[in-house]
Design a protein that fits this description.
The complex is a heterodimer of chains A (about 425) and B (about 160).
Chain A: H1 10-16, H2 43-50, H3 65-77, E1 82-86, H4 89-97, E2 106-110, H5 115-122, E3 131-135, H6 140-146, E4 151-157, E5 159-160, E6 165-166, H7 169-179, E7 183-186, H8 191-194, E8 204-208, E9 222-226, H9 239-242, H10 253-257, H11 261-274, H12 280-291, H13 293-312, E10 317-321, H14 331-337, E11 345-350, H15 353-363, E12 368-369, E13 379-381, H16 393-398, E14 405-409, H17 415-427
Chain B: H1 14-23, E1 26-30, H2 39-49, E2 53-57, E3 65-66, E4 69-70, E5 84-87, H3 94-103, E6 108-111, H4 118-126, E7 130-132, H5 137-144
Parallel strand pairs in B: 1-2, 1-5, 5-6, 6-7
Antiparallel strand pairs in B: 3-4
Helix pairs in contact in B: 1-5, 3-4
Classes of the chains: A alpha/beta (about 425), B alpha/beta (about 160).
The complex binds pyridoxal-5'-phosphate.
The site of pyridoxal-5'-phosphate has 15 residues of chain A, from helix 4 and helix 5.
């Protein structure tokens, strides 16, 4: 694991980084700064802030103390230089690309992704003139052959949807380095507790903090974390960071802010203009969630693996896709990139197809039927009757959402209760 | 030279930088620009706000002022005590500037972001002058004294104490 701090380890940093006692009151729990704006000391102070000559708060669309505490905590846990929190995981994907892209430019995108991300990048990005080129997650060669002089970034999920898939990160890092473009990794399903993509050489990490980071399914949010290592200075491909900014009096972000440039730009321009800022309340919920991340992830992982092992042996189950199972084609990659566990999101095929899938989710008593993941509660989803129901059967099968597929996000309850519940529901199928 | 003086220029400890920023009072900025949009001017304004006595040095702007401070043509012309010299000049000029800093009695020789010259560092350190390279005092001050966290940066500072405001 990346050495995150000269003196302290991951669990200590999860509790303490970013959220020191409040300097004005001493409040031990980090306060919710529920304010839209901040008083300037005087006209010169205001000018310094607007010119980016001093750090400070102007208006909460750009920065807020509670949100900043979350940004620092997560930047610390990922071993990054800085973070930009956003209103959702999707917003984080847009903000991550905003400093890099321009109309006509391309981003190479792995095809094993959260379905919403495929929609966002494949369809909505066209409205910005951004072109997403989809390639095969499992075939690094396909990334290489998609590189053109218009490529501005590569985007992948680390532990990938729809569950149980592991990307060979090192191979993709080599291709990104060779092409001179940043690699953006969505680390939502793993969290920094299980994997730190920056350690393997990725340049930018994004999260939907809605999932394991906030941890209780109570706060939408996202974050973009920058390694500070990509060479923007003088890099003609990235004029937002390497050429004078008219709106900031001709300042060049990479010259003035060095390795802080990308994160400065994301606050001073991306959030300022797109406005997809995280609310202080959601940042506060997530800040508290992250403090217990290590404990929860250990339990999520052990419960998830125990359930996968149980299901693999069940007579009413056709197959199980979980990278922690020896039968998984991703077992070796999983051990390499996720030595402490491969999370708790996985899918399995139930015997009897569509009808059985429906019956199963109606018979379970501890698994909530919701379209989310990374909650303390165990969750169940039958994609072909919900998230993927508009697709044809062939499209469903191609995207790993065939009629027999059931997806679980295993929570932190007693594992024997979860096993007993899924067992009775499976046996109930007939 | 005592062991404690050997500094790893790839990775400074927070204490090393914090001690420097706490101990110096006057800072000469070589290459300070009269153009308020330039990084050197940003740094100068910020350090003045934090209470340092900042002395601009730039041979092309003699006779001008920055934030009401007279600009000196070179370090040897400065008529005030200089605790620290911070340079915004190409790395190749650093050895000469290190020698000039020693002559005027500076205790710290600081080279800005993207600047590194190990020969200059050795010249300064052999004379007992502390050296920082490829860092910005504005960013380091903001990082170590709490303000950089305001912008979502990883400051590396872990504390359970109430920070003085
Ligand atoms: C891997 C991954 N990335 C991004 C997202 C989008 O995040 P959000 O729902 O917070 O916008 C999700 C979840 O929905 C996800 O699972």
């Amino acid at each position: 694991m990346l050495k995150l701090h000269p003196n302290y380890g991951f669990n200590t940093l999860a509790v303490h980084s970013g959220s020191a006692p409040d300097p004005s009151t001493g409040a031990r729990t980090f306060p919710i700064y529920q304010t839209a704006a901040y008083v300037f000391d005087d006209a010169d102070h205001a000018a310094s802030l607007y010119n980016l000559q001093s750090p400070g708060f102007i208006y909460s669309r750009l920065a807020n103390p509670t949100v900043a505490a979350l940004e620092e905590k997560l930047a610390t846990l990922e071993g990054g230089r800085g973070g930009t929190a956003t209103s959702s995981g999707h917003a984080a994907e847009i903000i991550a690309l905003f400093p890099l892209m321009a109309p006509g430019m391309e981003v190479i995108v792995a095809d094993k992704l959260y379905g919403g991300t495929i929609n966002l990048m494949g369809k909505s990005f066209q409205k910005f003139g951004w072109k997403a080129i989809f390639v095969d997650t499992e075939d690094p060669e396909s990334f290489q052959s998609a590189i053109t002089d218009k490529t501005r970034a590569i985007f992948i999920e680390n532990l990938a949807n729809p569950g149980g898939i592991v990307t060979d990160l090192e191979e993709i890092v080599k291709i990104a380095n060779g092409a001179g473009v940043p690699l953006i990794v969505d680390n939502t399903l793993a969290t920094p507790f299980l994997s730190q993509p920056l350690e393997w050489g990725a340049d930018i990490v994004v999260h939907s903090t809605t999932k394991y980071l906030s941890g209780q399914g109570n706060a939408l949010g996202g974050i973009v974390i920058d390694s500070g290592n990509f060479p923007w200075l003088g890099n003609q491909k990235y004029p937002s960071l390497s050429s004078p900014s008219a709106e900031y009096n001709g300042l060049i972000f990479s010259e003035t802010f060095g390795d802080l440039a990308y994160t400065m730009y994301n606050h001073a321009v991306s959030l300022r203009d797109l406005g997809c800022t995280q609310s202080p309340m959601n940042a506060w919920l997530t800040l508290n969630g992250v403090e217990t991340l290590p404990l929860r992830m250990e339990r999520h992982c052990s419960n998830g693996l125990a359930l996968a092992e149980f299901l693999e042996k069940h007579q009413n189950v056709e197959w199980v896709s979980h990278a922690g199972l020896k039968s998984s084609p991703y077992f070796k990659l999983g051990k390499k990139y996720f030595p402490n566990g491969t999370g708790s999101l996985f899918s399995f095929g139930v015997k009897g197809g569509y009808e059985s899938g429906i019956k199963l989710l109606e018979s379970v008593e501890l698994f909530s039927h919701v379209a989310n993941l990374g909650d303390t509660r165990s969750l169940i989803l039958h994609p072909s009757s919900t998230t993927h129901r508009q697709l044809t059967k062939d499209q469903q099968i191609a995207s790993g959402a065939g009629p027999e597929v059931v997806r679980l996000s295993v929570g932190i309850e007693c594992v024997e209760d979860l096993i007993a519940d899924i067992d009775q529901a499976l046996n109930n199928l007939r | 030279m005592p062991d404690s003086f050997i500094v790893n220029h790839d990775n400074y400890t927070d204490n090393y930088i914090r001690d420097i920023l706490r101990s110096v009072h006057s800072i000469a900025i070589v290459g300070a620009s009269i153009n308020w949009k330039r990084p050197s001017n940003f740094v100068m304004k910020y350090l003045i706000q934090k209470g340092y006595r900042v002395i601009p040095v730039n041979k092309n702007s003699v006779g001008d002022q920055i934030y009401g401070r007279n600009i000196y043509p070179d370090l040897s012309s400065v008529k005030e005590t200089v605790d620290m010299v911070d340079i915004f000049r190409p790395s190749k000029e650093a050895p000469q500037l290190a020698e000039n800093s020693i002559l005027i009695g500076a205790k710290v020789f600081w080279m800005q972001l993207e600047l590194r010259n190990d020969r200059a560092a050795k010249i300064a350190e052999d004379a007992g002058v502390k050296v920082v390279m490829n860092r910005c005092p504005k960013i380091e001050y903001a990082r170590l004294f709490g303000e950089l966290g305001w912008s979502g940066f990883n400051t590396g500072v872990i504390s359970v104490k109430k920070r003085r405001t």
